[in-house]
Design goal:
With 271 residues, the protein is of the alpha/beta class. The chain has eleven helices and ten strands.
């Protein structure tokens, strides 16, 4: 099973580099990027999960409608990506459900940072996908965390996929910067070990960042951004489809994992 996901937020990365960047500017970038992603998914006939901030839900109703109309899943990603608060866990759920009329089952904390397990459970989420079980200096230090799905109370935890043993992260930056053949090889190794693959990207990666030096984006983010990233995502999907892998959304997968994990003694995979 392949679980593609997109952290669908207002573009705020320039603010990390001292650039005065408004919400309106950030939304313009992310809306264009999201529509490019949807074009790629539609062309390749696969479904994905979009973790949306409250800001994105409020300011891009037409894009939210397109995500729904094309059969993808919507989940929560806080309210304001730049300033996450503990109350966002509940508030983002209310915003998304009020806007769509559908129940939101999943949550991912902005920047994959820690989030209160108590608040996740109290808000009634089925799953939480806020863990990247890799070691990335200055960002994540999760070498002892479970590399595969596990339960915390009644909530399924769905970590992003990393390679066995070395725990090399296979998230968005990896597809930007690794040779495609090597990234594909690592993905196949994860599938052989775990039986599923979980990864995530952002809409602004699919915007032509190289044409905007005023954003002050580091090379590793600008590299292969825009249309090249669309091509890289499409190539990944096509490789996996040729090998017979199915694509799905998080909620059905989380239900399946909850049933499996609750039927056996608690075990965490640290390999």
């Amino acid at each position: 099973m392949i679980l593609l996901s997109f952290d669908t937020e207002e573009f705020d990365v320039p603010r990390e580099h001292g650039v005065d960047f408004t919400l309106e500017e950030g939304m313009k970038v992310s809306v264009e990027g999201t529509n490019r992603i949807l074009d790629v998914l539609k062309k390749n006939e696969v479904k994905a999960t979009f973790f949306c901030t409250g800001n994105f839900v409020r300011h891009a109703p037409e894009t939210i409608r397109r995500i729904m109309d094309e059969g993808h899943e919507l989940a929560c990603h806080g309210v304001d990506h730049w300033q996450p608060k503990e109350s966002d866990v509940r508030e983002s759920k209310q915003i998304l459900e009020n806007a769509t009329g559908q129940k939101a089952f999943g949550y991912r904390q902005p920047r994959m940072f820690p989030v209160s397990d108590e608040e996740i459970a109290k808000a009634g989420y089925l799953y939480n996908s806020s863990l990247n079980p890799a070691f990335i200096p200055g960002r994540y230090m999760h070498l002892t965390a479970s590399r595969t799905c596990f339960m915390k109370g009644d909530v399924v935890q769905i970590p992003a996929s990393v390679t066995p043993w070395l725990r090399f992260p296979l998230f968005w930056l990896s597809l930007h910067n690794l040779p495609q053949w090597l990234y594909h090889l690592f993905v196949r190794r994860v599938l052989a070990k775990d039986g599923y693959f979980v990864t995530y990207f952002h809409p602004w990666e699919f915007y032509d960042l190289r044409e905007h030096p005023e954003f002050k984006m580091p090379f590793i983010i600008r590299n292969h951004s825009g249309r090249q990233m669309c091509d890289r995502l499409s190539s990944l999907i096509q490789m996996l489809k040729r090998r017979g892998h199915e694509f799905g959304t998080y909620t059905p997968f989380a239900i399946q994992q909850a049933q499996r994990l609750n039927a056996q003694p608690s075990q965490a995979t640290h390999s």
